[in-house]
Specification:
With about 425 residues, this protein is of the alpha/beta class. It has one domain (about 5-420): Glycosidases (TIM Barrel, Alpha-Beta Barrel), CATH 3.20.20.80. The chain is built from 13 helices and 13 strands. The strands form 3 sheets. Strands 10-9-8-5-4-13-12-11 form an 8-stranded parallel beta sheet.
Amino acid sequence: MRLRGALALLLLLLLCVHGGRYHGAEAAGDGFVRVHGTRFVLNGKPFFANGFNAYWLMSFGADPARRGKVTSALSQAAGAGLSVARTWAFSDGSNGGTSALQYSPGRYNENTFQGLDFVLSEARRHGIKVILSLVNSYDSFGGRKQYVQWAREQGQSIGSDDEFFTNPVVKGFYKNHIKTVLTRVNTITGVAYRDDPTIMAWELMNEPRCQSDLSGRTLQSWITEMAAHVKSIDGKHLLEAGLEGFYGASSPSRGAVNPSGYQVGTDFIANNQAPGIDFATVHSYPDQWLPGRDAQSQLRFLAGWLDAHIADAQAVLRKPLLVAEFGKSRRDPGYSGDQQRDAVFAAVYAKVYDSARAGGPAAGAMFWQLLAEGMDSYGDGYEVVLGQAPSTAGVIATQSRRLQGLARAFVRARKERQGRRTGKGGN
């Protein structure tokens, strides 16, 4: 859809109101994604993150026999207009396997790190920005359970994995990992990660949860401390917490928005207001959260879930909102064909597009998960292989074009406005 005339001017005005002026490094075109109000901006233009998750990229990048899958996936993604990939910058201890990134506290597998170097170099080559998550909340790939175990092996008396967020030794291990990743110099490009505009943002944790403190205060303190640590090392990149979006004590009126039983020690409002957190995230899995409900009931929940978070990002947080994970599993008992997955994708994309068109905070959505051909063992029901899912690929590509059209409309409107100021007109 093309925006013209008054609608384009309205978009410009809304972006200016929510985004402020475009100047300095942003206008100079240094390639870093930044935040202005409720907008992402890249080189002075609005940036929309139509993207995907591909947690496996680093491990495949570290294996010469499988590196081609990284290149293939990124090439296909770029062909569909996808602009952002989210992936892991962690693989801890024995659960990370023989190719673990950090095999013991502060000790790293150089070959695996070079796999991540390769991912970033290929992403840059294909024009894709990357969000790097720094640790897992879950046991897979080590996660906080591994960090806690390392501390126990050093004599710490630790009761539960939730002490990842409070034990000073564990926090020291994690802070060291942050520093190691952020100061890493890419062996292919020669650019330190903290200076690399290919990286869009850091993520503190994949889906943090702390069920021993449902008030959210433990996570709030941890997010605040770790955000300050990240920013002390890297002042160029954006930072987000990795939240799924469950509401907590700071917004009791929103409690009914959560799926039943999902009080996990997070607080969407308070956690995203922590100093240093640049934008908010929300995940959406109605097929997991509402088991047994039919597809239409799940779609209705999805609409209300996204509406609430978009409204709060606009009125309360005043930050961009990224739907950092969403999908529809083909393994769901009620799954009857890809049209159900396409309906979920279309519903999420419509909420993002409508908000973006109106100058709102929804800045993009990233489906879980993209695979390349020949990766059947990595399928979890949510996988999308673009070449094997033509209808879903079409929905994805259409969203990319629509968001690219919004960005072009903004540029046209700004040129028209500048032309009127100079009396030269706008072309």
